[in-house]
Amino acid sequence: MWNLVLIGLSGILVGVLLSMDRTFPVGLCEEKLLKRVVRVEKLLNDTFENITETHVRIKDDSVKLNEALHAQLEAFIDTALFNYGAVREMNSTITTLAGTYFDKVESFIDTATKNITATLDKMNSSITRLIEPKGKSVMHQVMFHVQRPVVRDGEGYKKLYEYGINEKVVFELVVHNEVSGYDPSTGYFMAAEAGVYMFTLQYWSGYKHLDHFQIVKEGRVLTMSLQKNGEGCFSVRAFALLALGDKVWVKSTSTDNVYSEKGSCMHSFSGMIVRL
């Protein structure tokens, strides 16, 4: 490159010499030529210095560029290596989590299967217990038998009670009361379980008296008995389908008098559940 520069400058110098006015005296021409040579030399020196400075700057810039590229390359390699490590770590974490998840799912399925199996076994056992009693016995152990206490009157009869109109009859004397279905303090029988029940009311009507009793379920009359001017022992029976907690009681609908004879209590209320 420097050879090309020198050749160019030499050409410029030759052109200057050839352009000199030949009519000038020799001494004047030499002086002018010398001045031109000096100027050209200075110009060459300045140009050379500029070229040298430019070369130095280019070299420095090249070094800086190489350093910057090297730094960026190192940073890129470091980042790539870091990302590769992070990806490997993430992959390991995902693999571990996936294994744990599948283990938990498998454990959950096993537990759920065992629980469902146990529940089905319990249901099957309960259904078996419900089915087995059918056909073996028509009566269940839900039953009661209650009476009215005896009060002696002056004629030798055992007068039990005088009832008013729409009065609930309460039988205080409990003879039998399985599962405590009958409450002697309120006169209500409450179903301890759902089913078909049979109820029986017995009473002894006095002579020339109007006796009117009803067996009632939750306010609805199941059956009734009406005796007018008849003396003797009477009974009435009713069947009812009861839900759990349904109540049944006896109600008087007129001014009634009931008796017992020779210590035998004739006024009673009974009930039991029947399995059909």
Features:
single chain; secreted; rod-shaped; alpha+beta; C1q_dom; 276 residues; 2 helices; six-stranded antiparallel β-sheet; Jelly Rolls; C1q domain-containing protein; 45% helix; five-stranded antiparallel β-sheet
Question: What would your notes on this structure say?
Answer:
It comes from Dreissena polymorpha (Zebra mussel). It is found in: Secreted. This protein has 276 residues and is an alpha+beta fold. It has 2 domains: 132 residues; 136 residues, Jelly Rolls. It is 45% helix and 32% strand. The chain has 2 helices and 14 strands; from the N terminus they run H-H-E-E-E-E-E-E-E-E-E-E-E-E-E-E. The strands form 3 sheets. Strands 4, 6, 7, 9, 10 and 12 form a 6-stranded antiparallel β-sheet that branches. It has a 5-stranded antiparallel β-sheet with strand order 5-1-14-8-11, with no helix packed on it. Strand 2 and strand 3 form a beta hairpin. The chain is rod-shaped.
Q: What would you say about this model in short?
A:
It holds the Pfam family C1q. This protein has 276 residues and is of the alpha+beta class. 45% of the residues lie in helices and 32% in strands.
Assign the structural class, choosing from mainly alpha, mainly beta, alpha/beta, alpha+beta, or little secondary structure.
alpha+beta
Number of individual domains: 2
Order of helices and strands: HHEEEEEEEEEEEEEE
Q: Give the CATH topology of the largest domain.
A: Jelly Rolls
Instruction: Please bin the fraction of helical residues.
Output: 40-55%
Q: Which architecture of the largest domain does the CATH hierarchy give at level 2? A: Sandwich
Oligomeric status of the shown chains? single chain
Uncertain spans, ≥5 residues at pLDDT below 50?
none
Please state roughly what percent of the residues sit in beta strands, choosing from under 5%, 5-15%, 15-25%, 25-35%, 35-45% or over 45%: 25-35%
Tell me the overall shape.
rod-shaped
- Number of beta strands: 14
